[in-house]
Amino acid sequence: MNEPVRILLVGTGRMGLGHLQAIQKMPELGKVVAGVDPSEAARQRLTEEYGIERMYDDLAVALRDEQVEAVFICAPNFLHAEYTLAALAAGKHVFVEKPMALNLADVDEMVRQAAAQDLRLMSGQTLRFVTPLRYVKQLIDAGTIGKVRHVVHRRLGAGRGGDEHSWFAKQALSGGILPGIGTHSLDVILWWLGERAQTVYAVTQNIDPHTEVDIEDEASLVATMESGAIVNVALSFHHTAGTEWIVAGTEGVIHLQDNKGELRVNGEKREVPEMVELPGEGAIQAEFLASIRQVRPLAQAAGREVRETMALIFAAMESGRSGQSVVVNQ
Questions:
Q1: Is 304 a member of any domain?
Q2: Is 307 exposed, middle or buried (0-12, 13-18, 19+ CB in 10 A)?
Q3: Looking at the domain assignment, is residue 9 inside a domain?
Q4: Domain count, the chain
Q5: Domain harbouring 189, CATH code
Q6: Tens of pLDDT along 9-59?
Q7: Is residue 53 part of a domain?
Q8: pTM (2 decimals)?
Q9: Which secondary structure element, helix H or strand E, spans residue 123, and what is its range?
Q10: Which CA distances in Å does 245 have to 156, 253, 297, 305?
Q11: Is the dihedral of CA 26, 30, 32, 37 positive or negative?
Q12: Coil, helix or strand for 44?
């Protein structure tokens, strides 16, 4: 019987603890054996509440821990590339929270290094593991609505998930709304369609009244796909109107309210099954850990695949700055 994958958790904030709690529910697959956080209080909490005794304040030292096989990187966005490359160089498999990095050159180097060493590199695209979204993928793949011609999506909600003094409130550190939540939305759409984006035109704005906040916090974009399909996405940190997905094809329309809400196909309500069979595991942490133990490629959200999402994100950001349509880097 295979032993569980031994994990180093880097960053013990909300995202890090969420992954830790999920991993603790699958002890046959993985075990967090060490952690890294610059905060002494955070390190002490992980030891006292979760029983993790080996705690570090320095990633370089932690990566020399020979017991560690894989790393979960849940640090601020601007550290993702640096930490991922360091972990790969140390011979560790890497799960990195989204966005993978804040520029495409870093993403490409991360993918290259992982491939060169035959290490798993997974991005935290958790929406691929949400059952209704998986069901939409299954319906599209089955040809339920024919050839997809148009996807319309909005994710309009209040709040950035951090105050105006946090790293997330700085464009250079977080990347703003497109890397922040656009990675989720656009990744799902590219995954559903199974193709790359070719061009994108975007409008991005900063309408936050706090002078300390300099991030782009509103975005609207139109992208064209290889098949000719049109993708229309609106994102906001201000206007509370919820989440909606519309996928229109040559033979019908799929309409999903929110990520776990009511699903309709051609106007008729469709019940979402409890389980949707797709390649790989049904939970993101399980897929990462199982791929390591089974010595197989990742079935979902591998870095090389999510690279196409990031290319679209960065092209949209460039378009927002230039006011021009941008060709997506292939």
A1: no
A2: buried
A3: yes
A4: 2
A5: 3.30.360.10
A6: 999 999 999 999 999 999 999 999 999 999 999 999 999 999 998 999 999
A7: yes
A8: 0.95
A9: strand 121-123
A10: 12, 10, 29, 22
A11: negative
A12: helix
